Amino acid sequence: MDDLQYVYATAGVMAVYFLWQVATRRFDPFAPVWLFFVGYVQIYVIQAYSYHEWAVGVRGEDVVATANSRALWALLWFLAIYHLGAARLVAARLPRPPQGWSAPTVAALCPVLIAWGLLCAGVFGGGQSSQEEVSAEGALLRSFPFVMMVAAILLITTGRRLEAPKPAFLYAGLAVAGFYVLIWMFNAKRSHSLMGVLTTVCALYVTRQKRPSWGVLAATAFSGALVVAVSIGWRNNPNYERSFSGFTQFVSEFDLSKILVSMDVADEEDVGPDVSYESKEYGGYLLMLDTVPEKSDYDHGASYLRAISTYIPRIVWPSKPLYGRKQWIDAWIAGSELKRDEEFAGPAIGILGATQLNGGATATLIVLAAVALVLRASYDYFLLHAGATWVQFFWSIFFYNAWFVVVGDDPVVWFYYNWGFSAFPVVVVTWFASKYLAPRDAAPEPTEPEPWEAPPEWGYAHETAPEPAPPRTRRRFKEGAST
Q1: In principle, which of 151, 247, 334, 405 could form an S-S bond with 113, CB 3.0–4.6 Å?
Q2: pLDDT tens, 14-44?
Q3: Are 452 and 209 in contact (CB under 8 A)?
Q4: d(CA 415, CA 424)
């Protein structure tokens, strides 16, 4: 089988899965599988196809064929675990969320989070522009920009509550979200800009328990691609003054065809024949496959320990290592086309590059299964309790991580790099505030939560009434919605 046939087959699996979900009226754009697909198709379909000639020339046909075939069976394995059913049992046994919601807590938290986020973004001075001029403690304080977007989602979900709408909160949340996206486009950070778009759209719809129309989904996809392309283009632009007026001029003259460049569909016009694509996620994946373990060692999943070690301050543990970093560096030094040294701080390698570094094909099976279970259990928990404002807030601020697990240095980087610092503490605080500080007239927590029945206006509602739960079973699910 020609190695490109594996790429076509990988694309075909995702296309058939999409058509099946739509045809059976199970399609939910806020299910994590779709953002997982977004990252997967960019690396293992678009990049694999666009950079095929370079890949074969640098790594050889055997390595490229192995890489593309693994991308195919890893996707099939992920989907099998995602639909296995074990995640539903986990979701049904997790603690029930609080049914109340404390608007005063939101009102108290949001100004602090917004001001903190603006400080991190450099709006108040310091921030992005002069990290090297501040102390280590000051630099750490400026490392939580996403808290501003957390505040925006708090305001939107509070303002859109069906039982107690607060339009002022909603409009404030939309303004903060828009400002956040604009700031991080100017700061040339594509991830923050994209996260702002995705979380805002999700919060607007899950609070009404609706799914967006195809027109809204198309507009969201275009907007996401646009903010990413503008951020990348502004970062690499040599022709405009690095000021707000220069940015405004850059945006007004932006060539929409650059969106294809940012999506790896097309190359820059001035790219020469000897260009290396090693800095792309697919290039990093090939390097790991070609290098580990023949030329450098596995890390045996050591990098995942950072999900714990990151939160232990060095003042407590001065000799704290950066788990997994040595093996990552060693692989780049051993297999790179270019000269690398111990100070190398290069690009991401994608989920399959990470699992190859963890332990090859065996680690790929283990990690993809864990990712599928966590994403599906989180989604099923959202479906089971989708009427609770806390769950709507949690899912809006969490679901985009399905994209992060695919495109980062490892599948846990989303937690220890951004979410665990910026969003998780607020998620915990609002849990307790909603449970113990919510008004007395808030809806009482039911002894057995009602499952989420999709409203008819979605066009995706199941036509039959939900079946009663059989004896000794707490909850039954159907794919795509709990009924």
Answers
A1: 151
A2: 999 999 999 999 999 999 999 999 999 999 9
A3: yes
A4: 9
